[in-house]
Amino acid sequence: MSRFRRFLRTPEAVAGAIILAALIAMALSASLLFPGDPQAIAGPALLPPFQDWSLPLGTDRLGRDVLAELFHGARTSLAVGLAAAAAALVVGSVVGTLAGFADGLVDEVLMRITEAFQTVPSFLLALAFVSVVGPSLGIVVIAIALGTWTGPARVARAEVLSIRERDYVASARAVGMHPLAIAFREVLPNALPPVLAMSSVIVAAAILTEAALSFLGLGDPNRVTWGGMIAEGRAVLRTAPFLSIVPGIALVLTVLGVYLAGEGVVETTAVRRGLS
Amino acid sequence: MSLLTVSNLTKRYPRGGKSIAAVDDVSFHIDPGETLALAGPSGSGKSTIARLVLRLIEPDAGRIEFEDNDFLALSGASLRARRARLQTVFQDPLAAFNPRATVARVLDDPLRIHGIASRSERPRRIAALLERVGLAAELASRAIHEISGGQRQRVAIARAIATKPSLIVLDEAVSALDVSVRGQILHLLLDLQRQERIAYLFISHDLGVVRAVAHRVILLDAGRIAESGDARAVIDAPRSAIGKALLAAAPRLHRTRP
């Protein structure tokens, strides 16, 4: 409870949480408020915002409702961002724990693989992966996770290297626990906090990467994405700049919200651990 | 036949380019139900010997025979199974437990791993273990960090006896406790030894405690055995230089008789 109160006392964390809540509300209410296909034609093409109140944010080049697209786009951004970050964190902490705990050859092999992934720019990796395998939501998630799991892996390994020397790990060995059980039951849960602290940055980066992929036409073509909307608007950037600006603002706010809320959570838990 | 026979045990560590022997050609044996103390100043190799005997680290040379088996030849599943007979209690009762664990989970692990009790039977066994070490069964649901240091060390002892071992390595097991609690824990250990015939490898730098609980003592200096023999005889009249130094350093209450 006190942790929650401390969270509320940090203004930027509250701002982040509000933005995030609004985003989640948008994503959840998308099919309620805007039933049917958001990519269907809803009115005249290139209607500017605030002209027709049944289409408050106007329409794009093909006459699609921008507000509906924005709401449905929130779904894609959030789903891809969270799924990619979750995948990166899970894969990263498992690889890092195994590398740190196994020592020797396993450590060497896993860390060289990690470095191999790190040397390739993560966006290039995602780009190459999607263009080879083909764009769909699942593939985009995997592509983004492919470039981001290395950070959590390195942090987890460093933490595990320090934890495995503690007495309780020696106790678990003396009791006769299996090494894998020690790694995942005794060590990993205690190595997680610094890894989870990276999650806000990873989610924010994943949302941006997804937008960039969609902008380049490598997003899932059957889904509305903010990146795709910006790309659509680019052709008419001079005559109808709002088509790029509206999803652009949404994107900036989302990344900011995720980052601020995440930092707020990390901050408050860090204070708590410092006190105890 | 002795329970544990250690012969010519050696462990070296590299330090500054050359290797230093932390344990240098050490041999000893422990009989069933006996307490052998390893005493010596810091850095004399006491804890290294404890970790070698527990197979937490591997020796560079030497043999360890435990219950008539070559203990160093075991590996993997057979080593893990054999560990049930050779348990340990560490010095720091807080560091020896996973900070997220509850008392019940700590005691559940050995029972589960060695298949001693079925899932439905375990809560009852855990309660019995807690009772055996003088704790209330209700303590089982508490987190490790919620109980006191003395209670924690009792839980550590309960964990060690859960698998019915024949030997427990006590690595400075009472050194971190305050004096009144220390007496109670020593009493509990002696009581367990009498009833279950458990042997102890008792590691301590406190000669007073060693004299009170050990049958035999080995004094270590720089990884070598300096002196060994009957605990009282050695501590009352040490012949080695390190023994005399340790005795002189031990704090004592000087009383003038009226």
Main sheet of chain B? 6 strands, mixed
Helix and strand pattern of chain B = EEEHEEHEHHHEHEHEEHH
Estimated share of beta-strand residues of chain B: 25-35%
Mean pLDDT of chain B: 91
Number of domains of chain A: 1
Terminal Cα span of chain A = 15 Å
Major β-sheet strand ordering of chain B? 6-7-8-3-9-10
At CATH level 2, the architecture of chain B is 3-Layer(aba) Sandwich
Low-confidence stretches of chain A: none
CATH class of chain A: Mainly Alpha
- What class, by secondary structure content of chain B? alpha/beta
Number of helices of chain A: 12
The H-level CATH homologous superfamily of chain B, spelled out, is: P-loop containing nucleotide triphosphate hydrolases
Helix coverage percent of chain A:
over 70%
CATH topology of chain B: Rossmann fold
How many E-type strands of chain A?
Answer: 0
Uncertain parts of chain B: none
Looking at CATH, the homologous superfamily of chain A is: MetI-like
Percentage of residues in strands of chain A = under 5%
Number of strands of chain B: 10
CATH topology of chain A: MetI-like fold
Domain ABC transmembrane type-1 (chain A): 74-262
InterPro entries (chain A): BP-dependent_transpt_permease, MetI-like, MetI-like_sf, OppC_N
Subcellular location (chain A): Cell membrane
Main location (chain A): membrane
What does this molecule look like?
The complex is a heterodimer of chains A (276) and B (258). By secondary structure, chain A is an all-alpha fold. Chain A has one domain: MetI-like fold, CATH 1.10.3720.10. In chain A, 76% of the residues lie in helices and 0% in strands. Chain A is built from 12 helices and no strands. Chain A has helices at 2-9, 11-33, 66-102, 104-119, 122-133, 137-148, 150-163, 167-175, 179-196, 199-215, 226-234, 242-275. The radius of gyration of chain A is 22 Å and the shape is elongated. Chain B is of the alpha/beta class and 258 residues long. Chain B has a single domain, classed as Rossmann fold (3-Layer(aba) Sandwich), CATH 3.40.50. In chain B, the strands form 2 sheets. In chain B, strands 6-7-8-3-9-10 form a 6-stranded mixed beta sheet, sandwiched between helices. The chains are: A mainly alpha (276), B alpha/beta (258). Chain A binds chain B through residues 166-168, 170-178, 186, 189-190, and chain B through 51, 54, 56, 80-81, 83-84, 86-88, 90-92, 95-101, 109-110, 113-114, 156, 159, 163.
